[in-house]
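Quick one: structure tokens for this chain, please?
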Amino acid sequence: MNYTLNQLQVFLKVVQCESVTKAAEELHLTQPAVSIQLRNFQDQFDVALTEVISRKIYITPFGREIAVAVEKIIQEVQAINYMTLEYKGRLTGRLKISSVSTGKYVMPFFLTDFIKDHSGVELSIYVTNKKKVIESLEKNEIDFALVSVLPSQMNIEKLDLLQNKLFLVGNSKAAIESGVKSQDAFQELPLIFREKGSATRQTMEGFLKNNNVAVQKKMELTSNEAVKQAIMAGLGYSIMPLIGIKNELSNNELRIIPMKGLPITTNWSLIWLKGKKHSPVSLAFLDHLKRTKNQIISQRFSWYEKY
């Protein structure tokens, strides 16, 4: 057998994703490139690793056994890489962060310089809704979580990174009188909500409850991008984080509708379990944030402070 490390990595990712398309996205490769590597790896075995039924890929029992061995090989290779870098006196290890979905517009800017300065650090970011982010934190599967609403029943420590502002947003043709009371406006507006478990939905529902607002018409969508597209198409309005609509505001595809009681303000906070024993990598990252966060905000989010 003459399989390559690249083939092993591709095969393991396909097994983890159970999809060639998703594996290609996570590996930043084209789908044909992943398919070729997968086929070349399969050609070295007389027993099938995968099978395709109705255009869906399934991993065979033999394929799953091979995947376990492959994961161990890749871990050993990573350990060799880490030892080499440590011998040279460089920071090495893995930094694992889970972020709520809208946090993808925030977290990368606080990571860029740190990752550039420490090429021996392997970064893993999991982007999902708040419920799953908190679950991964409770299980101690990650070093840090990025949230805009703090969990109420967990012992955590935190570092605030950036203010989170949520406005009522409509498309470019939206016409609502400036300063109208929420109780009046929301009687007629079709409101678009994120799915249950989303921090944006939690904040939005809190605003409606605190202002005694009864929503007559509502729609539920499962991602920030889907909500934006629905608003631009004229399907309704939503209370959205400003951080995720920069381009749409610049292109006049969306507009902020002034309303009493808005914006809602919270904080984008990096949180971790109280008493957690941080690795050298996570300690270095915390130190980096404390030293540079104000500079990052000034350089990367100057547009944000205008609203």
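The mean pLDDT is 87.
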